[in-house]
C-alpha cells in the first residue's frame, strides 16, 4: 500500500553513517520486508558491532513516526481497497513492522477501518519469511489460507506467503526480475493487481 523503503533507507543510512559505516542498496535489500529487528541484525553484521536493539528500535521508530507525513499511498491503493470493499472481500494487513509503526501508518491515511485484521511483526513468534504473520491474518479473518491472495513488494514477504500456502501477486518497487520465479503473478502497480483480480 505504501512505499516506505526510501524513508527506511534514509534512516538506516543515517544510523550507520553516524557510527562510521556506509549503507548501501544491497544491505538495504537484506532488510526489506523483514522488520526492524532484522534490519538491526544486518547492521550489526555490516558494522561488526553489538547493538542495544530495544533501545535503538525505540529511537528509529520515533524517527520514522516523526517523518510519517512524508509517506504516500501507492498509485491505485484506494481504488483497490474500494473495489475489495464493494465485493465484500475480507481484507487484512500483514506487516513485519511493529504495531506502533503499522497503526501510525494506517492512521496517517485513515485506512485502519478498511481492514478486518491487522497483524504485525511483534504480535507473532516468527517474522517473515516464516508464514506466521499471514497465517495469523487468515485466522483472524476466519478464512482458509489456501483461499488467500497476498499482495507483496518484498521477496521476504513472498516467501512467507508461499510458506503459508497462499497465492502471491508481487508488486515490486524496482526490478521485477527477482520475483518472476517465486510469485504467482508479477504486476507493475496496484491498478494492474486490481485488474488481475477482476475487481
Please tell me about this protein's structure.
The model has no long low-confidence stretch (mean pLDDT about 95). This protein has helices at about 5-15, 25-30, 35-45, 55-65, 75-85, 100-110, 130-140, 155-165, 190-195; strands at about 90-95, 115-120, 150, 165-170, 185. α8 (about 155-165) links the parallel β3 and β4. By secondary structure, it is mainly alpha-helical. The protein is built from 9 helices and 5 strands; from the N terminus they run αααααβαβαβαββα. α5 (about 75-85) runs parallel beside α9 (about 190-195). The longest helix has 14 residues, at about 55-65. The protein has 2 domains: about 5-70; about 75-195, HAD superfamily/HAD-like (Rossmann fold, 3-Layer(aba) Sandwich), CATH 3.40.50.1000. A 3-stranded parallel beta sheet has the order 3-4-5, with helices on one face. A two-stranded parallel sheet has the order 1-2.
SSE blueprint:
Elements: H1 5-17, H2 25-31, H3 36-47, H4 53-66, H5 77-86, E1 92-94, H6 99-108, E2 117-119, H7 132-141, E3 149-152, H8 155-163, E4 167-170, E5 185-186, H9 190-196
State which percent range the strand residues make up: 5-15%
Could you describe the largest sheet, including whether it forms a barrel?
3 strands, parallel
Order of strands across the main sheet: 3-4-5
Uncertain segments are none
Total DSSP helices? 9
Q: Give the H and E element order.
A: HHHHHEHEHEHEEH
SS content category: mainly alpha
The CATH fourth-level homologous superfamily of the largest domain: HAD superfamily/HAD-like
Rg over CA atoms: 17 Å
Kindly identify the CATH topology of the largest domain.
Answer: Rossmann fold
For this structure, what is the CATH class of the largest domain? Alpha Beta
Fraction of residues in H or I helices = 40-55%
Annotation, overall tally of beta strands: 5
Q: Label the overall shape.
A: globular
Task: Tell me, rounded to a whole number, the average pLDDT.
Answer: 94
Please, what is the oligomeric state? single chain
Amino acid at each position: 500500500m505504501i512505499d516506505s523503503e526510501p524513508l527506511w533507507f534514509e534512516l538506516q543510512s543515517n544510523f550507520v553513517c553516524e557510527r562510521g559505516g556506509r549503507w548501501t542498496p544491497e544491505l538495504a535489500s537484506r532488510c526489506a520486508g523483514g522488520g526492524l529487528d532484522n534490519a538491526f541484525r544486518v547492521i550489526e553484521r555490516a558494522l561488526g558491532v553489538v547493538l542495544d536493539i530495544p533501545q535503538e528500535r525505540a529511537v528509529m521508530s520515533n524517527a520514522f513516526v516523526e517523518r510519517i507525513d512524508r509517506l504516500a499511498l501507492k498509485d491505485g491503493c484506494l481504488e483497490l481497497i474500494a473495489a475489495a470493499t464493494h465485493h465484500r472481500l475480507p481484507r487484512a494487513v500483514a506487516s513485519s513492522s511493529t504495531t506502533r509503526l503499522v497503526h501510525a501508518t494506517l492512521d496517517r491515511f485513515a485506512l485502519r477501518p478498511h481492514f478486518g485484521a491487522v497483524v504485525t511483526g511483534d504480535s507473532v513468534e516468527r517474522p517473515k519469511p516464516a508464514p506466521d504473520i499471514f497465517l495469523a491474518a487468515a485466522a483472524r479473518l476466519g478464512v482458509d489460507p489456501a483461499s488467500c491472495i497476498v499482495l507483496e513488494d518484498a521477496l521476504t514477504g513472498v516467501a512467507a506467503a508461499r510458506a503459508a500456502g497462499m497465492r502471491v501477486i508481487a508488486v515490486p518497487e524496482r526490478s521485477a526480475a527477482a520475483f518472476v520465479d517465486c510469485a504467482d503473478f508479477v504486476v507493475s502497480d496496484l491498478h494492474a493487481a486490481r485488474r488481475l483480480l477482476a475487481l
